[in-house]
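re: ur question from earlier - yeah i can do the single chain one, its not a big deal. heres the input i used so u can compare w yours
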Amino acid sequence: MAEIRAFRALQYDRERVPLEKVVTQPYDKITAQMRERYLAAHSNNLVRVLRPLDQPGPSPSPLSPYERAAETLKAWRRDGLIREIEQPALFAYYQRFRSPETGATLTRKGFIGLLRLEDYANGVVFPHERTLSGPREDRLELLRHTRTHFGLVFLMYSDSGARVDSILDRAIETGTPATVRDEYDVDHLLWRISAPETTTAIRREMSGHRLLIADGHHRYETALAFRDEQRRVSGPGDGAGFEWIMAAFVNMESPAVTLLPTHRVVSNLTDFDPRLLVERAARFFDILDVGGPGALVPELRARRGASTPALGLVLPGGRTALLALRGGTDLRAHLPDLSPPQEALAVVLLHRLVLERCLGLTEDDIRSERHVRYVRDAHEAMSDVQGGRAQACFLLNPTPLGQVRDLAFSGEVLPQKSTDFYPKLLSGLVMYPVS
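and the output i got, formated as tokens:
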């Protein structure tokens, strides 16, 4: 049973700090160029705390990067740039954006609150992707020093009647939101909801839902690890801040929920042979050549929702092809550990049949991203191959949310970067101090 509560969040003082200049995209989406832009935008931009390991050059301070991040946060709080709100609250969090695929204007509605941390085995919170140890260790070290959550875990629940959304709509009718337009022209609107009758109604509606982690697997697992560390020191406690995590909750039944594909770009393989790759892939797929890179994306999109999994392939020299799982292929003979739902997903077949079987990559190669880069834009992926910066790229359609949900709720996980929920949730709109 999901247990949610209002909390006394930390927030930037908007009378002293322009909110649009200090919030950031999630920490794992911040490129080097974005970080420089954030640093130039404002001296109190959250990136100074959020990404302490990015500090260039030797530091004159004897403190570690994480200690410096904690000292920076402490100074901002001491100077009143970041303040704790007076009353516990939930926050309505709406995002208005144009669909990258259709161009339609959509509004994705959700709310921010605290969730009692639950082990996956308890059947309340469900992951859908594998995670990596490096990001978990980095986030855990930052949490140990700052004792504050800055980013949001993105959780989804199923509410076909949109009952929670209706409560939120009524709660914000007369309020004025804090508004930020981000670098992707997404409008982020935030309302504070502190009326006890409203927060109680939301908590009651949410209590019976199972929760799917859409984004933030590393953040959630970091919080679990921190909770377990703190329990060993002081024991479990219902009122302890480390027993909770800050999250955004969104109804997966909303028509504004948008998933984008994440493509794979392969490079730096020793003795890469495009002809051998095609020859090996032909054991499993029908190889259908298409009329150049410009035709590949439309051909792939036309296959969306088809019963036969398909993916796109671009090779040096201009060859572009659609790979469609060959009829009658006995996947159980090749991949006996896969469940029927996994067999129907192109992203799973790409990893298990193409990357591992045809290219010889190990799970560790893929996890460490030594040879595989993940790219949202199909044209960027294809241009890397055409420009000689990569050896091949594989294009995918978005993984259907219903299949992601069903796999997760049955206890299965997908390869990393199998989903890309758009838009992302900003860091720094609200923050949660665990003590």
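The CA atoms of residues 123 and 210 lie 7 Å apart. not sure if urs matches, ping me
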